[in-house]
Specification:
This protein starts with a helix and ends in a 5-residue tail after the last helix. The chain has 19 helices and 22 strands. The strands form 5 sheets. Strands 5-4-3-6-2-1-7-8 form an 8-stranded mixed beta sheet. A 5-stranded mixed beta sheet has the order 9-10-13-11-12, with helices on both faces. The chain has a 4-stranded antiparallel beta sheet with strand order 16-17-18-22. Helix 6 packs antiparallel against helix 7 and helix 14 packs across helix 17. It is an alpha+beta fold. The structure holds adenosine-5'-diphosphate and magnesium ion (MG).
Length: 579
């Protein structure tokens, strides 16, 4: 009910909405807005079944921009509660008062009123005790309402929102930008854990914020998706966002997201079921890939997945520009349950309408690897990325970074994290394939551990074995290492186990990982070449090749960037070169 009433206020163009409830809304809900208001006559009409002012023509149905359009809310509410409606249009002197009780008109008079509309709902379900019994506790109903208010507040930061529950002023939000709104709702500290996203094309645009991986939550509470400002739910988009975090987010964690999709309903086939909030896109695959790449790009721009090209969105825009005048299918299939279907709403192909291939459009974005069917796509040997530097000079800088020329400019690779990424994926693969590649030690190494570490090692034996360790427990706190994964550097066999255990404990404090993933991360971190290790040219080339054969070459298992690229354009700008 609160959702419907607040949405009416939004549809009425309100810039300020106040929501007052008592006892979880059971005894009292009052929504006031400074929107358009209604004429005296409309005030009464608004309670009629299927009375809506929001659809004037068939055209309107094809491009619904308002939140409501079925004309059911006020009628339904008036049927089961005591409802007062006070409303005044800005250009009228006096307002109208309409009082409804159990669906019948009890009073209709003139009244003094502020411009806008105020609806007061008392004694919900007073005449249907069975339904009243279905209401949850005050506290639970309050939480649902709070959730609705919060969603609205996030979807429309431009609207001032006040929320009072049982006389307590819970929210008093000024209208403004989304950043201010987020700070007000979540606090400054939380805001700092968010990364802005954004991409605009002729067909759709996406904007909003996603949470940094480290600040993921254990439940899906803070996930907000809006389509044309309407709160929606879409399994596909949800999955796409999550996939964008690949390897940055541990299982069972959920990223914060606040994502606004804006799509011209004339141009993209969207199927909305208004009451369920569930949305189906005709070309779900492409939207899916679009969302993934936007998320990756954003993580990249924040050095989580390094930005590949400073102006990578350019090609993207161009590919859309060429389509600006292309024929678009004039087709919006509306799955609204109480809108007549049949010939009236039969989908109409546009005059020149060949279906638009979104897939092709989006195929230009990926300077970032895109998954096929949600699975990470392998960079085959010799793809665009490493092909570019084949045969080109390659340098090692301060025994730390590998520099190389690529098609678009300069690529810098952090050798340690690059190797870490390679080893990490190798470890994950050996968990899967269960054929560890290990290297027998000529002289088994005996490791003395603290009793805590010994217990931990004992616990981790199956995982350690899976990645190629061969070890035996030997009396009190002693482990004998008979083989190590082939990737372990000669000379570090003696310390590698202790290093892994230490790193494992470290990771455990920071983030909750499952043990296997933690073993993989700890191993890859400790076995990888370090900053300071001198590499030969061949070693560098092999490393780069291996890196680009991983599913996520741009980010190390801990979320640090592996590759930074500087485009020629960026260099030109820095040198103030105009051409
Ligand atoms: P719908 O929103 O689907 O049109 P409702 O039953 O929610 O149907 O509202 C019926 C009509 O009452 C709306 O179409 C609108 O004209 C009018 N109305 C409802 N609430 C407001 C409001 N807060 N301000 C102005 N007009 C309103
Ligand atoms: Mg409505």
């Amino acid at each position: 009910m609160v959702k419907e009433l607040v949405e009416n206020s939004i549809d009425a163009g309100a810039t300020s909405i106040s929501i007052v409830i008592k006892e979880g809304g059971k005894s009292f809900i009052q929504i006031s807005d400074n929107g358009s208001g209604m004429s005296d006559e409309d005030a009464v009409l608004s309670f009629g079944r299927h009375a809506t002012s929001k659809i004037r023509s068939y055209e309107d149905l094809e491009s619904i921009r308002t939140l409501g359009f079925r004309g059911e809310a006020l009628a339904s509410i008036a049927a089961v509660a005591h409802v007062d409606l006070k409303t005044r249009r800005r250009d009228e002197e006096v307002g109208a008062l309409v009082r409804m009780e159990g669906g019948t008109l009890k009073e209709h008079s003139k009244t003094s009123a502020q411009p806008g509309t105020m609806i007061t709902v008392r004694n919900l379900f007073y005449n249907t005790p069975a339904r009243r019994n279905f209401l949850k506790s005050n506290n639970t109903e309050f939480k649902h309402i709070y959730d609705v208010v919060q969603r609205v507040a996030l979807s429309r930061p431009d609207i001032a929102i006040q929320f009072i529950s049982d006389e307590e002023n819970l929210l008093d939000l000024k209208g403004g930008g989304i950043q201010e709104r987020l700070k007000n709702l979540y606090g400054e500290r939380h805001f700092e854990t968010l990364i802005p996203i954004g991409e605009e094309t002729d067909l759709l645009s996406i904007s909003g914020f996603i949470g940094k991986p480290d600040f993921a939550r254990k439940s899906k509470v803070d996930q907000y998706l809006f389509l044309n400002k309407r709160p929606i739910f879409s399994r596909a988009i949800n999955h796409a966002i999550f996939s964008g975090y690949e390897h940055l987010m541990d299982k069972g964690n959920f990223p914060f997201y606040l994502v606004f999709l804006d799509i011209d309903p004339h141009k993209v086939d969207v199927n909305v079921h208004p009451s369920k909030m569930e949305v189906k896109f005709a070309d779900e695959q492409s939207i899916y890939r679009f969302v993934i790449s936007v998320v990756r790009k954003a993580l990249g721009a924040n050095d989580l997945v390094p930005s590949l090209e400073v102006n990578s969105s350019k090609n993207f825009d161009q590919s859309f520009a060429s389509l600006r005048h292309a024929a678009l299918p004039h087709h919006f299939s509306a799955g609204f349950n109480n809108v007549p279907s049949g010939p009236f709403l039969a989908s109409t192909e546009g005059p020149a309408g060949h279906p638009l291939n979104l897939d092709k459009l989006f195929s230009d974005i990926p300077t970032v690897p895109l998954p096929e069917n949600g699975k990470p796509q392998q960079f085959a040997h010799g793809t665009r990325e490493n092909e570019a530097q084949e045969g080109k000079a390659i340098w090692q800088l301060h025994n730390k970074y590998i520099l190389s020329q690529i098609r678009t400019g300069l690529m810098i690779v952090d050798q340690h994290v690059a190797h870490e990424r390679v080893l990490y994926e190798r470890a994950l693969a050996s968990f899967k394939n269960a054929v560890p590649v290990s290297q027998q030690l000529l002289f088994p190494h005996t490791a003395q551990l603290s009793s805590g570490d010994f217990a931990l090692a004992k616990e981790l034996i199956p995982h350690l074995q899976a990645i190629g360790f061969e070890l035996k427990l030997f009396g009190k706190n002693t482990i004998v290492l008979e083989g190590v994964p082939t990737d372990v550097k000669a000379g570090s066999e003696g310390s590698i186990l202790q290093d892994i255990l230490d790193e494992f404990k470290n990771n455990q404090h920071r983030v909750k990982l499952d043990a296997r993933d933690n073993v993989a991360k700890s191993f890859s971190c400790k076995a990888a070449i370090k900053a300071g290790d001198k590499l030969t040219e061949v070693e560098m080339r092999v490393l780069i090749d291996q890196l680009f054969a991983t599913s996520m070459p741009y980010v190390c298992p801990h979320g640090r960037p592996v590759v930074v690229k500087i485009s020629l354009g960026e260099l030109d700008r820095r040198f103030m070169r105009t051409s």
